[in-house]
Amino acid sequence: MTQLRTRFGANYTPSRGWFHHWLDFDVDDVRRDLDSIAGLGLDHVRVFALWPHFQPNRSLIRERSLEDLRAMVDAAGERGLQVSVDGLQGHLSSFDFLPAWTQTWRQKNLFTDPEVLEGQSAYLTALARAVADCPNFLGMSIGNEFSQFGSAAHPQQSQATPEEARHWVATMLAACAAGAPNAWHHHSEYDAAFFDGRHPFTPSTGVPFGSMPTVHSWVFNNTAQMYGGMSEQSLRLAEYLIELARGWSPDPFAPLWLQEVGAPSPHVASSDAAEFARRTLEYALDCENLWGVTWWCSHDVDRTLMDFPELEYSLGLLTTHQAVKPQGTAVSEVGRKYRENPSLAGQRTTALVLDPGGTTGSNRQQCAPGGAFFESWMSLAMSGQRPTVVLAGKAEDDAYLATRGITELRYAADVQFKHSP
Predict the structure, then answer these.
(1) Order of strands across the sheet with 350-354?
(2) Helix, strand or coil for residue 411?
(3) What is the value of pTM for the model shown?
(4) Domain-wise residue ranges, the chain
(5) Mind listing the pLDDT tens digit for each residue in 264-274?
(6) By three-state DSSP, how is residue 128 classified?
């Protein structure tokens, strides 16, 4: 087994115009932003296309937008930054961005309508093809937390079964591969997949697909509200989600990507943001085969833009004027120290057994903050156990446990010693 050296990057939020910058794209503005990101010692960025701007009609994928994306990727390469491109936006910072041909009088299901799937596939293939030959292009993510449109909480839900969700993920990844067959492509999931037993997108829907599982860690998901922004539960949330994803993965040695993590105010006080970043990353770096950490986000949102939730304005490592914030310094320092002394995380020998309720994960709520599984895992972690996760279906597989180095199984019901292969 080959251990990975973790990469450090940022989700690129343009300092001028936010993601609306695609409407009047200026590569010089982008270069200034990327200079500041590279100045933090980061090595990659995740960038976001706005779907309705790039594909305003099902048969119209704008060449100018594809050229602008190519210019952005090239500018990043000039600064030593690799790039992952997210396609279906989809959903960003509490706003939804959907083209008119999917909405209103033409309301169509985003996961099952054949015309929508055809349009989405053509769009993702075009994006990937536009940058496929860029030497710093890492690959595509289907979209940013696009599965939130399948949530019962969404005001315009696109209903899907787990089987339909699985088919949609596979179809979209195939479209990315058609445009860039040699790149790494991903499905970017938010924590409802792990925590909500009703959600049609389950870990078995997304985790086994793509080049690596991705994790988005946000303490405003009731972790900070229940335990406090600087509690161990909040500081270890990213670590916990990484290990949950590892437990669901058919390949427990696959690389894992902490694709989003941030310090949202007021859930984390601004005075604590730097320490939150430092300690969160230190816990995450103790996870085996962590491919990368990509902080949300690079730059603050300009306060001249209205109607964002308050927490969205101050998540950046940098201000809109390129000044490095305390959390930017913290992330930069953690990355520098890691590069100078890349201590690689060892295997975890203690595992908490998860019975998720079959492949549909009907019992996933136990994994959410306050749930029995969440509480038990955190208790073990805070006692120094370095727990990982094993699904119940693998708990009696001695060969599997031995391969992972697991010598002790625990159960949330009693948290007692159960197994020693």
Answers:
(1) 387-391, 350-354, 408-411
(2) strand
(3) 0.96
(4) 7-340, 350-411
(5) 999 999 999 99
(6) helix
